Amino acid sequence: MFGPSPTTDPPLSCSVLLPGNMMEPLVDRPGPQIGRSSLGERMASCCSYRTLQAWLPILTWLPKYRLSWLQMDLIAGLTVGLTTVPQALAYAEVAGLPVQYGLYSAFMGGFIYTFLGTSKDVTLGPTAIMSLLCASYVGGDPVRAVLLSLICGTIQTAMALLRLGFLLDFISFPVIKGFTCAAAVTIGFGQVKNVLGLKDIPHEFFLQVYYTFYRIPETRIGDVVLGLLCLCLLVTLQWMKSTLEPPSEQNAFLTRAAHSLVWGIATVRNALVVVAATFVAFSWNAFGSPVFTITGKTSQGLPPFRAPPLFETTPNGTSISFGEIIEDFGGGLAVIPFMGVLESIAIAKAFASQNDYRINANQELFAIGLTNIMGSFVSAYPVTGSFGRTAVNSQTGVCTPAGGIVTGVVVLLSLAFLMPAFYYIPKASLAAVIICAVAPLVDYRVVMQFWRIRKLDLVPFLITFLLSFWEVQYGIVGGVVVSGLMLLYNVARPSIKVCDHGVLVMELDSGLSFPSTEYLNTVLYTQALQASPPRSVVLDCHHVNTVDYTVVNELRDLLRQFKLRGVGLIFSGLQYSVLEVLLAADLPDLRHTASVEAALTILSGSTQ
């Protein structure tokens, strides 16, 4: 990881994970020192270089940048750039916008994320999900699409400044795995149509499956052959790299050189396959035999840098105000920014887990938000993290977020000068790159792990996995909701261990809060108060670190009920903060001891 390591609010210290999984400590990060420092000291801390590092993660990894990383970042950035251009053109059509708007949206994220991002793998840009959501709310209107990018970015940046990134910590590991597996299957199968050379296939997953098989007779042989060759070559090179034994110092120079050559070719396999396929497609077209489906011609020219319009003028001269546009967006102002954040954070968490580093959710929020704000100045529509291109970036061996600069430059060059070069890229070759990149993310072994360790975690995993085939955003939201309900259930139904020592001893394993009061009341009534005869109880609270007013009010009633039945209720092991609350409530007949044994002694003596 190359920025602040925590996934929530900044801690007092942070670290940076360099390639090779080497964790190096960084300087302490400023934290709140309320009551221990003066206002001037706190202001000086807020303006320090350490705070600047917190907001600009590039300052943590750039001083440690190595020349060997540059080679890998260049290769990864170029490969992702070659993947981004045709995808951006396609996603613009999904959004119902002119194709150049896809490229306008594809380069700003690379530059912004290099400075602000905390994941080495994530690439920001247009995606299928955001494009479909935009199509639902902008109706193919470029002016509204650009304005939507500005508003989404403002909302996301506000979330980051208010430190609301902790909300995204409720995306549990089963949800991330369910999303990752479903998205990998969706993206991988979505490329089958390009391998087969099929056109006009619906984007909705189930329709896509149906029409892909239904239209197999329309398969283009050239695309199939080229796509399969690219797949075979990519798989072979990947296998060669994974089985390559590192040479020792005793090996001859030629042996070490051969090892380096094979390793280099295998590492740049994505770029090599795309370039080779492009050359093949160009050669066939030059001889008058266009047998491959290629990217085709696109518009040329850089977008102007200007403030996004806050109103719209229709062709008949009617002016639509900012307020009216906001009203037309309606629920999209909640759905699109939050889905963009959820998708990007889920992707970042998935690849951070896979590559052994951590991200900072608030910083990711800030990077996405600022990308959308600045993107609106170059006519971009809302963007988020791209699963497919992030997978390509990771598989190609990117070392730092600087690979995004190369990707951004490739997109800018393609807008300005290189459209003829991209014209001949076969879609089948790009499909092969993406399929090979996402295939390892279909982790079937995780199902067995959930089954062996905790079967209940299969519920959010399966709900996320299955709903994601309908709509990815529904899968993520469904998984988060189910995980949240499971979490709330544990809060409302804390585990209570009951032991009988002549007197009942009930041990609570967590804090007491208002959802759990009814359950605690029920257990005490059924086990003690309604027993014949009624039983005294020692409530072991050494795990309880918080109580609220609802709990205190319920305890007041319980103490009264125990007194009416002539039995005792004693609290043992109360932490100071909890005891302070109970004493402040002035509960009648409150008795507490430091240990369970002391409470048992008191109750045993009172029953004799």
SSE layout:
Elements: E1 13-18, E2 22-28, H1 39-46, H2 49-55, H3 58-61, H4 67-94, H5 100-104, H6 108-116, E3 124-125, H7 128-138, H8 142-161, H9 173-190, H10 192-196, H11 205-214, H12 221-243, H13 253-267, H14 269-286, E4 312-313, E5 319-320, H15 322-329, H16 332-354, H17 361-375, E6 384-385, H18 387-396, H19 403-416, H20 419-422, H21 427-438, H22 445-453, H23 458-470, H24 472-492, E7 496-500, E8 504-508, H25 517-529, E9 537-540, H26 549-564, E10 569-572, H27 576-584, E11 592-593, H28 596-607
Parallel strand pairs: 8-9, 9-10, 10-11
Antiparallel strand pairs: 1-2, 3-6, 4-5, 7-8
Helix pairs in contact: 4-7, 4-18, 4-19, 6-17, 6-19, 7-16, 8-16, 8-17, 9-16, 9-21, 9-23, 9-24, 12-13, 12-14, 12-21, 16-17, 18-21, 23-24, 25-26
Report on the structure:
This protein is an alpha/beta fold and 608 residues long. It contains 28 helices and 11 strands. It has helices at 39-46, 49-55, 58-61, 67-94, 100-104, 108-116, 128-138, 142-161, 173-190, 192-196, 205-214, 221-243, 253-267, 269-286, 322-329, 332-354, 361-375, 387-396, 403-416, 419-422, 427-438, 445-453, 458-470, 472-492, 517-529, 549-564, 576-584, 596-607, and strands at residues 13-18, 22-28, 124-125, 312-313, 319-320, 384-385, 496-500, 504-508, 537-540, 569-572, 592-593. Strands 7-8-9-10-11 form a 5-stranded mixed β-sheet, sandwiched between helices. Helix 9 (173-190) crosses helix 16 (332-354) and helix 25 packs parallel to helix 26. It is elongated and about 105 Å long. It starts with 12 loop residues before the first strand and ends with a helix. Residues 1-37 have low confidence and may be disordered.
